[in-house]
Structures are given as structure tokens and as C-alpha cells.
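User: Hey, my collaborator sent me this sequence without any context and asked if I could get a structure. I don't really work with proteins. Can you help?
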Amino acid sequence: MNALRFGYGTNGFGNHRLPEALRVIADLGYDGVALTLDTNHLDPFGAGLAARTAAVAADLDRLGLAVVIETGARYLLDPWHKHSPTLMHDDRTARLEYLRRAVQIGADLGAEAVSFWAGIRPPDTPDAWDRLVDGCARMVSVAAAAGVTLGFEPEPGMLVPDIAAWHRLYADLGRPPGFGLTLDIGHCRCLEPQPVPAVVRDAGPHLVNVQIDDMRRGVHEHLEFGTGEIDFPPVLAALRDTGYRGLVAVELPRHSHAAPTVAAQSIEFLRKAAP
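Assistant: No problem. I've predicted the 3D structure and written it out in C-alpha cell form, which is a compact way to encode the shape of the chain:
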């Protein structure tokens, strides 16, 4: 059986410069990093992107860190509205360009996946699903040309909130080979009717990216390990049993105030829980 590979999300190191965050994550023994492209961490719209990307690639190589790209920046595209625009808005130019740049950065960094999601359905948008499918189809083409794998994440409250909706989207796209599933373990506890290990096993054939945190049923909040309701040993065993070889990255975006401490506690917990 393959050993699980743990990573940590840079959105939980928001008060650190990116090179410092990568160094702390590596020093704690993580195998990789989930890099959210944001204003202070490899801003994809800042000047000198190619040179800055090359510097990050060098840091990752020196530190021995694998990487996945996350695109959950809250206010990067619109300083007034969180996560806007989405692929469903009337003017989605900024979102498409953000995702295009994320794919290019992913290619330049050798990322294992580039992850994105639907967003919340805008009001008075009866064709939201069709807009989403069209936007995803565009990104599938961009990613295929760059040789990059996409991971689409179901997210509570968004147009694609669960794995059943992901399967519908996947089918409507024609089941493209480069369109995989990003699975947030906490969201499984929050929304899915099956026990979390069963959800993981069912999702296994499509998994390209895994985020992990604790959560209580019905509470969409990223909690530290041991503060929610998830029994992690069987969940991690299910991941291992699927043959999943990608990163299992801790996602605690509200814990930047204590990032090194929380990251250290997280990997200690996961190592003890892993089969």
C-alpha cells in the first residue's frame, strides 16, 4: 500500500511571505503545499509573474515540496465582493483569466492539479448551469493544451455543492480525462449522506486533489483536528485503499494567526491517525 502524502495550504499562512511559509511547511515535514494564488502569495496579476513563478519553482525544488494550485482567493478579483466574479456572472472575464493564469502557473511549477469550484449562483441567472458548463469546458481546453490536470471541488452553498452534482457536471462536459475531483473531507461530513469513508471510496476513481480539515455535520466551518466530529483513521485508510497518490493538504484558512503552531499540530495528528 502507498503511504499518504500530506501537504499544507498557504491560505493558512496568510501573514507569512510565501518563501517563509514554504520553508516552515517543509521544516515541519510536509510533503507538499496547496498554493492559493492570492494578493500576497504569487499574485497572478502582479508584475514580473514569470520571474516570480520561477523563484517559487526553485524554492519548491530546493525544499522538496510537491504542489497543487488552489484558486480560492477571496478578494483578488473584486475588492468588494468575495469570490466574484464566478463563471456564472454576466462578466466573467476576470475569473476566466484568473483560471487561465492558474493553469499556466501550474504548468510552470509542475503542479499535480489546479483546483477550482463553481461559486454561488448569482441572483436572476436562470442559465447559471449552462454558463458553468461552458466556462468549465473552456478551462478543460486550456488545461489540456498545457498538460495540466484540473480538480473541480464541490462546495457547500455553491451551484455544485456535492459529489452528485460533480458527476452531473462531469457528464455534461463529456467526461474529459483531465477533469478530476477535488474532495474536501470536511465538506463530506457537512453534506454527504453516506459515512465519510464510503464517500471517499466512491470518489476514489476521480480523485486528483484532497483537502482535509475537521467539521461538524451541518456546520460549514474549517475546524482544527479533534474539534469536529470526523473519525480520521478510517477516512485516511479509505484514501489509502483507493490508491490515491496525490497530496492530502490541510486546509485551515482562518488560522493564519497561529500558522506554525497549527501546522505542527496538524501533521502530528495526521501521522498518528494514518494507517
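In plain terms: Residues 5-273 form a domain with the TIM Barrel fold (CATH 3.20.20.150). You can pass these C-alpha cells on to your collaborator as they are.
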